[in-house]
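Handout, page 2. Input:
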Amino acid sequence: MDPDVRSAKELCGRIVGEKSSGFVFEKIASDGDAYEIESVGDKIVVRGNNANSMAVGLNRYLTEFCGTTVSWWDYVPTVMPETLPVIPSKVMAEALVPQRFFLNYCTFGYTMPWWGWKEWERFIDWMALNGINMPLAITGQEAVWQKVWRKWGLSDDEIRSFFVGPSHLPWQRMCNVDRWEGPLPQEWIDSQAALGKKILRRERELGMHPVLPGFAGHVPAELADHNPGLDTTRVSYWGGFADKYRTTFLAPMDPSFAAIQKDFLTEQAKLYGTDHIYGVDPFNEIDAPYWDPETLAKMADGIYRSMAEVDPDAVWLQMGWLFYADQEHWTPENIEAYLTAVPEGRLIILDYYLENIAIWKRTNRFHGVPYIACYLGNFGGNTVIEGNMRDISAWTREAYEDGGGNLVGIGSTLEGFGVNEPVYQFLMDKAWDTGISDSRRVDMIADSRFGRESDSFREAWHLLDEDIYTSVSRTGHATLNMAHPCFTGWWHWTTNPMITYDNSTLGEVWKLMLEDTSDKDEYLFDVANVGRQWMGNHFRELRDLYTEAYNRRDIEALEALSGEMLGIFDDTEALLSSREEFSLRRWIEDARRAGSLSDYYEQNARTLVSVWGDSYHLCDYASRAWTGLLGTYYKPRWKMFFDRTSAAQEFDQAAFDEDIWAFENDWRMVSTPVTYPAPENPVDVSRRLIEKYNI
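Output:
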């Protein structure tokens, strides 16, 4: 059997179980990626030029004809109709771009750090079904670095102490922080290496070309002690971390740079093989040692040539986030010098945050360098309804029409999975010439999540599309109940509760979703998700009333409002109680299963979703509306605030902040037991809450 056909058939079996006997997969010849699906007798025939295209064709059939969807979460079942629906006439589509990228370094911290093979297997299938053929693949690289740094004289204690804790590894990989929550256990390094091999094997079976890391210049500070004379610099401070956590950068022009690159790529190829695409990101949210065009060009040339000397087919993949995040230093002149120093066709740029800003427009289409147009969509794994499908349609269409011949792909650089999975499926559909209108796509989203056509649920989703999904993702996108308590504003940049719609409109969506009901997981999730968002938005309205009552010293109103606001935490937990997507329990239990040092892993998991680092700077950046987290972390903070203000005495915000910081650090150190509400059906809870809040 052809390997592509075998891989597609096996994927089908994993997704639809016994129904897979009704599918036939066939290989076709095509100049680019393409699929076709049709009914032949009592079989559904799916054809494609490779396993990835066949997977997209299968997904088209499941969504458009079966009224179902495949979740990226392994615990959400794919519900199939009793009989496979007939396709009236052959359906065909071709890919508009050859490369479809997915993931972000941060996703491996905000979503994936505690995943095992079960979670990865479903997600890889999801990527294939959505046409992704260029996934970022950075799991297990610490095993490679351990071998390299041993060669360069470091002891295992030095190496493991250099590494940060598991949840924070993505930011060390981007040269942002060292040592935080280390040393990294050897059992973790070994288990991730084994997992990385399985991930890469499956991704390649499904027609993907994984992006493995390359050496970007980040070295342990101790390297210079063992190898005097290296051209290293301490990088700029990042994330509010103390000096002892600062990182060290080796100049690409130093002869040792190419030697380390050779050692790393050689050891990595032995362990994981290669697809000749290497993610190298030397200046992510940190300063380059020099900011003149000539030196930046030398750095880029040194990085690329160090890879090409080891792998002549090497292609460098670079995040474009730095051009957005530091526009002061990355001037047009500096960007051009940096990009054009690499030979033609050997560098690919991710235009990282296109829903906010199109860097290709500011750089003469990246001066001819191949690039991939990307939607970010989520910061920190925040659980906020956000995104704009109409905007996605607009900027993808504009990129296709005016982005130049060097536009080679569509992708997503999401920091975490959040709660907006349909938006990413909508995005990846835009990589194919399907002929499906956006309005029809919204109908298909509604039908596949409900399990059948429902006029009211379709109306709810069209209202979401038209009036709720109207914003771009922002850092700190979260409802106010997850912010540090304060009287006005939202205290810190890591929690931003601003919305671009009227909350009453979201209330209408919530009610529409209850006019017709389903027992399908995705429907129940949507009901819980919309209700959760409404209550979080309502909390801000109540906080403003609380502030007014405090200013007039109305003690009776303060007591009533504080009770109502604390009640929102309890009501939200009840609404979310049956949904695994909204549970701290899963995050912690998965962390504790990571190895024998269960308390260590739990502490690291708690830290990321609470204080994040060693200062306030990133506190709450990864906020999530999760059962357990709402009840034991966010609610107690607001109760402390109410206890100090409900009697209308003078309030000392600075002293309060110190006490909150102490509480948060106590919570993350595995000293506070987590309680969870008893599971309830989101439909029943929603009806109760809609009546309670008179929506």
